[in-house]
Amino acid sequence: MLKIKDIIQEIERVAPPALQEEFDNAGVQVGDVNQPATGALLCLDLTEEVVDEAVNAGFNLLISHHPLLFKPLKSLTGKTYIERCLMKAVKNDLVIYSAHTNLDNATDGVNFKLASLFGLEDVHILSPKRNNLFKLVTFVPVESEDILRKALFKAGAGHIGNYSSCSFNTEGNGTYLAGENTNPYRGERGELHTEPETRIETVFPAHLKTAVLRALLLAHPYEEPAYDIYPLDNEWHQAGSGVIGTLPDWEDELIFLQRIKDVLNADCLKHSPLTGRKLRTVAICGGSGAFLIKDAIAAEADIFITGEAKYNDYYDVENKILLAVTGHYESEIITKDIFFHVISKKFPTFAAQNSTLNTNPIKYL
């Protein structure tokens, strides 16, 4: 029977926990993930009404974008909606799970979904993550190099931009002296052996370290494979904040602003003064993305779309870019559809459904 942890594992294939920002608290918030899954309710925010909706539907898994818990609790008395949600979840054996900034930073996450809604082309990360890559160097007998490379690539190593199976290979000679209680690949115990080897270099993201090392140790013919792992300061263009892409054709500012409002079903759309220029290059960051305004300007975007911005942000764009602010909720409500797509693709018969409740705490008069 399908267990809750199986559902979570599939979400984390798309949004690895290692991609979350330091301030975040994505992951399991409460509950036993080893229990059989009866259904999943998908939401942006968790409220008491959403928990009730899951209970009434007979579902024992709640998946939200925004974590219910950000700060440690000193007591659990029901004095806040957070505590009441937790108490109700525990009483009903529910699991609460959140994929937040890890979903924001993923290539199949929030911002790429928004880009697809606006029909952007040539979409890529606006601000790639750094310090998330490792280089693996290992040495393998020449006749085993193809087997080892394929195993490493299958585990997720060797991706650079839109290229896969990337490696650098050099030939050389390795030496070893097998001691007692060994079973050397070649040579005899107690005798120095020289073996023609290939040095393989490849890269992998930090969250795949365990999988890549497991693949190395299983595929390598030596009892004690030699390998080095180096942290890299390179940008990792497969994950990061925001996206940038281009529209198929130039668009008028007001027409495109109206399209943003319609696509995201926003009751109100705030924007900086019109620039008087047509739009083609679009940068996007769902949620609180104003920290990327300078990146969008540096990338020569014509417009930057985000969910939240401060008063001075509208001044800071200085006619260099058009700033469009949709509302936090409006820019991230599509996370429910992302969760649904991931789950239904892997488990097409599993009961997963979007919450029908509007949990936006901001109302417009």
Give structural notes.
The chain has 365 residues and is of the alpha/beta class. The protein contains twelve helices and 15 strands. The strands form three sheets. Strands 5-10-12-13-14-11 form a six-stranded mixed beta sheet. The chain has a five-stranded mixed beta sheet with strand order 1-4-3-2-15, with helices on both faces. It is globular and about 85 Å long.
Weakly predicted, low-confidence segments: none
**Order of secondary-structure elements:** HEEHEHEHHEEHEEHEEHEEHEHEHHE
Distance between the termini: 48 Å
Strand content: 25-35%
* Oligomeric state, counting identical vs distinct chains: single chain
Rg value:
25 Å
Kindly report the spatial arrangement of strands forming the biggest sheet.
Answer: 5-10-12-13-14-11
> Roughly what percent helix?
25-40%
Give a short synopsis of this structure.
By secondary structure, this protein is α/β, with parallel strands linked by helices.
How is this fold's topology laid out?
Layout: H1 4-14, E1 27-30, E2 40-43, H2 48-57, E3 61-64, H3 81-91, E4 95-98, H4 101-104, H5 110-117, E5 121-130, E6 133-141, H6 145-154, E7 168-177, E8 192-205, H7 209-219, E9 227-232, E10 235-251, H8 253-263, E11 270-271, E12 279-285, H9 293-298, E13 303-306, H10 311-316, E14 322-325, H11 328-332, H12 335-346, E15 352-354
Parallel strand pairs: 2-3, 2-15, 3-4, 12-13, 13-14
Antiparallel strand pairs: 1-4, 5-10, 6-8, 6-9, 7-8, 10-12, 11-14
Helix pairs in contact: 1-12, 6-7
